[in-house]
Design brief:
Structural class: alpha+beta
Number of domains: 1
Number of strands: 8
Low-confidence stretches: none
Strand content: 35-45%
Largest sheet: 6 strands, mixed
Length: 104
């Protein structure tokens, strides 16, 4: 986990264990663009996610990296609270991990 200003960057695996109170405290979490493979080397991940607490909402985004560091937002959703946003955020992380593992 790394901190850059008001943004926390963590792995997809760490995102799966995030709790609502942690998201509220951190306010803005983004996933890495790289994931360590079985050989200890970093493989590029074509997506990154972010969840951000705003004034009265929680925004989640799934971003596709086009030509690093460039990217575009593939999907964005807004929820009234972290409890509703976090399950979708985790689901997106699981799907990305599944794609990287050769899954669907």
């Amino acid at each position: 986990m790394h901190y850059y200003g008001n943004e926390t960057i963590m792995s997809l695996e760490q995102v799966l264990r995030l709790r609502p109170n942690e998201v509220r405290i951190l306010e803005w979490v983004r996933t890495y663009e790289y994931l360590e493979n079985q050989y200890g080397l970093d493989d590029a991940v074509p997506y990154f996610l972010d969840i951000r607490c705003e004034a009265d909402t929680v925004r989640i985004r799934r971003n596709k990296i086009t030509d690093f560091p460039n990217y575009h937002c593939e999907e964005e959703r807004v929820f009234p609270d972290v409890e509703q946003a976090l399950p979708v955020f985790r689901e997106w992380a699981e799907k990305i991990l599944g794609q990287l593992d050769g899954g669907s």
